[in-house]
Design goal:
39% of the residues lie in helices and 22% in strands. By secondary structure, the protein is an alpha+beta fold. The protein has one domain: GMP Synthetase, Chain A, domain 3 (2-Layer Sandwich). Strand 2, helix 3 and strand 3 form a beta-alpha-beta unit. The longest helix is centred in the first third of the chain and has 18 residues.
Length: 105
């Protein structure tokens, strides 16, 4: 992972933490999978995030993703070329996890 993408991944993690107070958060830099891609040449990274937050309760998937994009603002037009999101409520997260699996951020 390049230094710029490592910095962006750390910034992304902190921004999501501050904006959504998730009970579970995974941020992965997938930029290396897109080498040669037009967006990668411009410097923007490709990331994947799983966010489990009570802030998503009562929202559709579209509303959740719009909220994340709005929170990230200008970064979505520069440092982040692509962001694959999985947004879940704590109840949705609990329902799909095996009973013996422990959680955490």
């Amino acid at each position: 992972m390049s230094s710029a993408h490592a910095d962006t991944a750390a910034w992304l993690r902190n921004a999501l933490q501050a904006g959504f107070a998730p009970e579970h958060l995974d941020v992965e830099d997938e930029s290396h999978l897109h080498a040669g891609h037009a967006g990668a040449r411009g410097g923007g990274g490709h990331f994947r995030a799983l966010i489990v937050s009570a802030a998503f309760c009562g929202q559709s998937q579209v509303a959740r993703q719009r909220a994340v994009y709005a929170h990230l603002g200008d970064a979505m037009r520069g440092a982040i070329h692509a962001l694959a999101l999985r947004t879940l409520t704590p109840d949705e997260w609990a329902a799909e996890r095996p009973a013996n699996e422990s959680g955490g951020t």
